[in-house]
Amino acid sequence: MPNPTPVTPDAPAHIRTPLLTQEWLDLAFIHWAVEPDVVAGLLPRGTVPDTHDGMTYVGLVAFRMHRVGWLRLPGVPYLGTFPETNVRLYSVDGHGRRGVVFRSMDAARLIPVVMGRVGFRLPYLWSRMTVRSAGDTVTYTSARRWPGPRGASSRITVRTGEPVEEPTGLEHFLTARWGMHNAFFGGPEPLAYLPNHHPRWLLYRAELLTCEENLLTAAGLPAPDTDPVSVLYSPGVPVRLGRPARPAGIPTP
């Protein structure tokens, strides 16, 4: 196993020249604990499950993507603004870099979905989606359109509670993720690491009022048979994404 870098609430390095800029707004973080062996085969070659106290986690993260922009150009108001819901896992590579691996990324704009699939080889999926706030509750809905499986959908409602004054070790582990692992390139060793940078999360504890979904099973994961171990809400952060770095390295025993 690699020796992972420490979990830090702040990004380890500033990204001076971003590949992409965007805002992540109105985020609901919902997580279930799983044994690492359950998800190890779903991670890209060159990574292993990242763990906290011996367990790894499956995340369902719903939010609004806002004004995606390239390089230093202004963010796009319409095509770059849309609801998104991700199923993600937690990974570490041979250099000890902690990241996330996306199993599915439902989004409400077709052109960004196609660009994400073709340009970045990310598992974007076109879905009909809404995000609606009413008082202290936020409801996220999605119904998959393309490429499928058709019928994959979710309806999530959270009620926000008290602000998190000092996140626990697990809450830092689940939210302070400073990159993603993905097969951005072709070739025999395609794994790469794309870093991100954003301010420290403002988090709120949240109550999960509704969670009707089959996105996890559609992403190849077992259906949860317990309540989530963590439910959090954040109003959001501005984000910079750096350029993919290759190779990310292969963990060694």
Task: Please give a handful of descriptors for the protein shown.
253 residues; mainly beta; 12 strands; DUF2071 domain-containing protein; ADC_dom_sf; DUF2071
Tell me what you see in this structure.
The mean pLDDT is 92. A nine-stranded mixed β-barrel has the order 1-3-4-5-6-7-8-11-12. It has helices spanning 36-39, 110-120, 169-175, 215-218, and strands at 20-34, 47-49, 56-70, 82-93, 98-107, 124-134, 137-146, 153-163, 179-182, 192-197, 204-213, 230-241. It has one domain (20-241): Acetoacetate decarboxylase-like, CATH 2.40.400.10. Helix content is 10%, strand content 47%. By secondary structure, it is mainly beta.
Structural class: mainly beta
Estimated radius of gyration:
17 Å
CATH topology assignment: Acetoacetate decarboxylase-like
Number of helices: 4
The helix/strand order is EHEEEEHEEEHEEEHE
CATH class: Mainly Beta
Based on Cα principal axes, name the global outline. Answer: globular
What is the spatial order of strands in the main beta sheet?
1-3-4-5-6-7-8-11-12
What's the CATH superfamily, by name? Acetoacetate decarboxylase-like
Major β-sheet profile: 9 strands, mixed, barrel
Question: Helices and strands in order, then pairings?
Answer:
Elements: E1 20-34, H1 36-39, E2 47-49, E3 56-70, E4 82-93, E5 98-107, H2 110-120, E6 124-134, E7 137-146, E8 153-163, H3 169-175, E9 179-182, E10 192-197, E11 204-213, H4 215-218, E12 230-241
Parallel strand pairs: 5-6
Antiparallel strand pairs: 1-3, 1-12, 2-4, 3-4, 4-5, 6-7, 7-8, 8-11, 9-10, 10-12, 11-12
